[in-house]
User: Fold this.
Amino acid sequence: MLQQIVNALRRQDGVSDWLVRHIRKLSQQHYVIGDGPENTRAVTSERVVVTVMNDHRATQRGEELVRGEAEVTLLPSDLAHVSRKLEEAVFMAGLTDNPPYGLPTPSEFPRVDLADPEIRAQPQEVAKHMVQQLVDAVGAEKGVRLSSAEAFVDEVHTSIENSRGTIGTQVETKLLLDFVLLASNGDEEMESHIAFDRRRASDLDVPLLAHRQAQYARDAIVAQTPKTGTYAVVVSDEALAELLLSSGYSPLVLRSAGQLKYQRLSPWEVGKSIFSVEPRGDPFMMYSNSLLPFGTRSAIFDSDGLAGRRTLIIKNGVLSSFWATQRYAEYLAIPATGTFGNMEIAAGSSPFDQLFDGHGTVYHIVAFSAMSPDPITGDFVGEIRLGYEVQRGQRRPIRGGSISGNLFTVLADAQFSEETVFLGDYLGPRGMIFPQITVAGE
Amino acid sequence: MDLQKLPPQLAVPAEVLPGLVAKMERHVPYGAALLGRTGGLEVVVNHREQRVSEIPLRQGFVFTAWNGRWFEEVAGTDLAPRPMMALAEQLAKAVEVLPSAEPIDPGPETTAHFATPCAKDPTALSSKDKLEMCRDLHSRASKLDPRIVNVHVRYLETRDSKAFANRAKRLSQNVMRLRLSVQVFVRDGQEVKYDWATRDGVGGLELIGFTDQELRRLCDHALALLSAEKVPPGMYEVICTPDVSGVIAHEAFGHGVELDMFLKHRARSEQYLGKKIASPLVDIVDDPSYPGGLGSYFFDDEGQLASPTYIIRQGIFERGLSDLFSAHRLKVPRSANGRRESFERKVYARMSNTFFARGDTPVQDMIASVEQGVYLQHSSSGMEDPKGWGMQVTSHYGEEIRKGKLTGRVFAPVGITGYVPDILQSVSAVGNDFALSGGTCGKGHKEWAPVSSGGPHLKLKARLG
Assistant:
């Protein structure tokens, strides 16, 4: 299918450059409610995504040479109509006037671990085993039962080819384990809900995670609303990754994006501090890392065919480089780094337990209802789904209320744990303490 | 594209679905088939870039077989009739039907095709004309203030076609969803702030467009955010715009009444069926048949014809939203809320257009009745907590109300949290206006589906922070 489309692209008038991605996916999905199945699914899909660039004289003003691009998706049943689809793409690309840019030229691709041999060999068994491990682990937890679980195990093959001679193939595996536990003390019942994305089954210690989530569900029953005021707040594990990475829409990622710089939406400058106040916390170092073994955002090549890499973005709180795909790198005259990979943040120097020392009352947040800082401004507000009030070594569960602030202000003062965690797309400190955060509660 | 007919990519394979279902039902007590194709056009214009392109096409099939207790499904992208037939039969043969198989009701016999009525059919306008429409909007907005650093205009036209068959039904639909959004970015030194406005819905080009006055207001809001303050945390009397009201309806009492949550024992509302849960002024409705709502459709992904569901009437929780599995297990009537993100995912009980019903208080009277409070505008996100009955809604900004008047003092962003029954019972006035806003809703952190939410202005009490 890929070759047929490539041949058609080479024949098509008006195609100045092109990029083709052939994506085939196999997915096994298991859904459980309580102790019984709800659904089992097997999904296969295949599609080719074609990006066509058309160079033409500007349609709006001037006579300079400009470039437009358009994307079309071709399915196996579209092969008889490839020429018509490509003509449509050329027409759409010809409508828009953008400054010219190129595509990645051939380069050596890195070796990156993206596929779990166990998943590739026995996807259905891996999904079933994860669910069984979960059921067994929850069965050992007093006062806790499984509400529901979903296990997806996917294998994705991607082949890429572009008009500049770049050709590559990568095979990746993905798994998702999403589950809800219910804890009851007879009068009251509460839940804990979590979803884990990984590439490799052995990166999830299901019994350990089930035990942790069971305790969270029990604690939610007795949790109380936090007090209103300004407090030191520790955010840890998945909640910290959510605050910093926000599924890729993080202000840290977007403000360091070449595209946003080009669009005049990022005020950041290379060599200048990213913080809005004088930094007093641990040095903040952030990398975009596409080479992290089994990282869920790792890749041999990005969506344009640029080789995966590890790039220092922020060094000691100062912007070291923007990350940029080929197009925006050319627009800004900076090196192309490719799409942002996994977020890697350097560890701090304090043991996690010592982060709580010397701050009086500390709120430790382990789960937000949702935390997505504004991607442009960095302002955030998040409801506390579960946390702990820590005072003189005593921990009291809390839930409800919210914390708010601005990421570029609170990070300037933050201290990081020396322990690190790998959470699929995040490798960095297990926890951070922010000394001054507004808490809205009782 | 002729909306009165299925696109050819679905029309041919749709012909074989009844026969395919019959073949499956030789082996299983219930079978169903769904074909789906979602595609369309995106046009983007901002200060530095332009784009006209197809949106990523999703097209595929799902065959569903019932083993007496749960569903087994296969799904894929190859719509060639012969392989589809073979795969469906293979699925049905492989299913181990349980001895005490419970029957599934396929519903009344229905054969119909539905199409979105469009006064101004978007497919009659060329891509070039749509690009010109966006360029014009961009140009008008860009001139409004020198502090504007970018204006992002996006036109999104989504054509969502489906064909469904079980042993009683043969249905097809073409749904046209449109969105036109303008995002204005302003900068003062290192501060970049923005605001946006959207027109959307199921229908034609008559749904979208902005007057110069609306663009001026949008620009003024973005500029006001440059001097916005943080709201002092605490309990407030608030007035919510329809947009914020809608997200409260969606998060507070939408997700928590999706009946798969009852099966999973994840919804506290289960204990309140038939009981008072809100102020008697409150009616909450989910209606996939609401004309023009972005979450509208004619039948759901399990062949149930769209109709409204009163979730709360005069403060009493009446009924929830079901998919086939939850309705069957709970032995309750179905509602048309069985929805998939795409053929790649299973059906869940999902909302469509969810809103507070209109009241009778003029908005100005509501504001005038507040001694000290906040006028909350423009929701930017929300999250449900059906078990704990917490709720999180983020308002992009709010304006102070003092002695019944808006003071011009702006807070941003404003987090609204609280215990759902407390919030719903605190509703003390319901506006006589009404508006829906479209968006994309997830179930947990995935399973994205187009929805809308809204209603009138509301006056209530909530914790802000």
